[in-house]
Amino acid sequence: MNLKIPNFNIAEIPIYGDTILAPMDGYTDSPFRIIAKRFGSAITITEFINAIDILGNRKYYEAKTRFSDEERPIGFQIYDDDPMRILSAAHILSEKKPDFIDINFGCSARNVASRGAGAALLKEPKKIAEIISSLCNEIEIPITAKIRLGWDEASLNYLEVARIIEDNGGKMISIHGRTSVQSFMGESNWRAITEIKSVLKIPVIGNGDIKNASQIDQMKNETGVDGIMIGRAAIGNPWILSRMENINVEKTKIIGVIIDHLQMMTKFYEPRLGLIRFRKLLKKYLQTIIVPVDTMYQLLRLEDPDQVIVLLKSF
Known about the structure:
By secondary structure, the chain is of the alpha/beta class. The chain contains 13 helices and eleven strands. It has helices at residues 30-38, 51-56, 61-65, 83-94, 110-113, 125-138, 158-167, 190-199, 214-223, 251-268, 271-285, 293-299, 305-313; strands at residues 8-10, 13-15, 19-21, 44-45, 49-50, 74-79, 100-105, 143-147, 173-176, 204-207, 227-230. The strands form two sheets. Strands 3, 4, 5, 6, 7, 8, 9, 10 and 11 form a nine-stranded parallel β-sheet that branches. Strands 1-2 form a two-stranded antiparallel ribbon. Helix 8 (190-199) links the parallel strand 9 and strand 10.
């Protein structure tokens, strides 16, 4: 019997912990999610997946939905502008037995928002209601959502959208405290996140401007949110999910995590592709370690993962 009290629940799913790795396209594949889980991420969420790719069974769709039980509770994140495609895609994803499905109403990237998906849907609250309502009526697992404050400063409709998600059956909402137009510029508006938390009964997850471990409790205390979602600051720094500063982590432990992550990447993909995809993470992991320029140059150009590991161990 587990006597530990959960921090919050997604419907009937108990969630233990209050830090969460944010889903990030091109980064949060299964190896990264496993690393994050080991460092305390309370739930894991996949990179967002285009509903069109799911329905078309595109070749890279399989890798985005592959996960291990170690990652549970896990949610698949979907984006699209068409409610029926989202619903059809959710039915297909449900067959893979995730714990919940998350809908992206927060991506501000031009290639997503320009087609009316992601944060562009914040301009169409009625369509958001249709999406959440249809999913909650037909999909047996919980439906959650990620939003921003609005499209721009002239249309800050976050309270309206948050209520729509809850009223139509959504079981958790994650809120990035910026508008779509802001993207990642300016400051995250924690006051707005506090407002959302004050009016909703479902769990609210805060996101935006968590750059170091001390800001986790600062956001939680200021906003009252149930959990804190951490994105860019966790790239190459999973220690932040454990409320640790990587600057204080022993170099040998950092190297050990790097090697573990690299080996998972080369196994998940294949050796050469796994190494290529890992290079952008490697630079982030090594940001607190003084690495000579020529050594870094060599690390980022080696094509044999075993040679990279030998060089890392030589540190």
